[in-house]
UniProtKB/TrEMBL annotation:
Regions crossing the membrane: none
Domain of life: Bacteria
Keyword Iron part of the UniProt annotation: no
Keyword Secreted: no
Descriptive protein name: DNA-binding IclR family transcriptional regulator
Keywords: DNA-binding, Transcription, Transcription regulation
InterPro entries: GAF-like_dom_sf (IPR029016), HTH_MetabolicPath_Reg (IPR050707), Tscrpt_reg_IclR_C (IPR014757), Tscrpt_reg_IclR_N (IPR005471), WH-like_DNA-bd_sf (IPR036388), WH_DNA-bd_sf (IPR036390)
Species: Subtercola frigoramans
HTH iclR-type domain ranges (all copies): 8-71
GO molecular function, one term: DNA binding
Cross-referenced Pfam families: HTH_IclR (PF09339), IclR_C (PF01614)
Domain IclR-ED stretches: 72-255
C-alpha cells in the first residue's frame, strides 16, 4: 500500500532530508544514507528527493548516484543572508582565536535542539581534529559549543531537555541527562564548556556562549584539537580567550541590532 504523506508532515520530512544533506556538502549522501540519517523509509526518501530534484533544491551526481544540496538552495540562501548571516560579526574573533592558540576555531549557531557549525578557521598546529566542520550539526549538550549553549538556557528549559537519556544511544552513556547536568554545573562555574574527547577519543574541545541582542544563548565560539594540546594547565588560558571573544561577538551582535 502506498504511503500517504500530507501537509505539515511533508514539510517536516523535506526539512529532515535537506538537513541531512547539509551535513555532507562536499561528498553528498546516498538514498540509503539519507534514510538512515532521517529515520524515513528508502521509498519515502526517494520520492521526496525526486520532487526536490525537479524543483532544483537537490542535485544528483550521475556517476555515483549521490545526492547533494541543489542550486535553488544557494539562490535562496543568498537572499536570506542579509537578514540572518551573522558570521561576519564573528569572523574576526574566529580568526584571532585560531592565530592566538594554534588550534581550530569555530562559530556555531543554535537551531532548535541543535547547534550547527557556521565557520571554521584552522590554526598553525599541524595535527587537527575534524569532528567539527562547517555544516555539521550536533544536539545541544554534545560537543563544547552545544554544551555552552545548553548551560545558559533558562533553568526549566535545560532541565526538561536533560530529563531523559535521549542522547545515550547515539553518543554513549557519558551523555546521559545526569552526566550532561554535571558538565553544565562545571561550565557555569568556569564560564566555558569542556569536551574531554567524548565524541571521538583524543579529540578535545572548549567552548564559550555568545548571547544575542535579547540576552539569549544563541551562538558559541569553540576550539578543538588533540588531547595533548588541551592539558589542564592550558584550560584557563584557552578559556579566558574564548570568554573574551565571546563577549566581543555578543557586543557586536547588540550593536548591529541597535543599528
Amino acid at each position: 500500500m502506498t504511503e500517504v504523506i500530507r501537509g505539515g508532515q511533508v514539510v517536516s520530512r523535506v526539512g529532515s532530508v535537506l538537513r541531512a544533506l547539509s551535513t555532507s556538502p562536499t561528498h553528498g549522501l546516498t538514498t540509503a544514507e539519507i534514510a538512515g540519517a532521517t529515520g524515513l523509509s528508502r521509498p519515502t526518501v526517494h520520492r521526496l528527493l525526486a520532487a526536490l530534484l525537479a524543483e532544483g533544491f537537490v542535485d544528483r551526481e550521475a556517476s555515483d548516484a549521490r545526492w547533494h544540496v541543489g542550486p535553488e538552495l544557494y539562490l535562496l540562501g543568498t537572499l536570506a543572508a542579509d537578514r540572518y548571516d551573522v558570521t561576519e560579526l564573528a569572523r574576526e574573533s574566529v580568526r584571532a582565536l585560531a592565530e592566538l592558540t594554534g588550534e581550530s576555531a569555530f562559530f556555531s549557531a543554535r537551531r532548535g535542539d541543535e547547534t550547527i557549525c557556521l565557520m571554521r578557521e584552522d590554526g598553525s598546529f599541524p595535527i587537527r581534529s575534524f569532528v567539527l566542520y562547517e555544516g555539521v550539526r550536533f544536539p545541544l549538550g554534545v560537543a563544547s559549543a552545544g554544551l555552552a549553549v545548553l548551560a545558559y538556557l533558562p533553568e526549566d528549559e535545560m532541565m526538561r531537555y536533560t530529563a531523559d537519556d535521549r542522547l545515550v544511544e547515539r553518543f554513549g552513556p557519558r551523555h546521559s541527562g545526569a552526566s550532561i547536568r554535571n558538565r553544565i554545573a562545571v561550565t557555569r562555574n568556569t564560564g566555558y564548556a569542556l569536551n574531554p574527547g567524548l565524541i571521538l577519543e583524543g579529540s578535545w574541545g572548549m567552548g564559550a556562549t555568545v548571547f544575542d541582542a535579547a540576552g539569549r544563548p544563541a551562538y558559541a565560539l569553540s576550539l578543538t584539537g588533540v588531547e595533548s594540546r588541551f592539558r589542564p594547565e592550558r584550560h584557563q588560558e584557552l578559556g579566558a580567550l574564548l570568554l573574551q571573544h565571546a563577549h566581543l561577538v555578543t557586543q557586536r551582535l547588540k550593536s548591529a541590532t541597535r543599528a
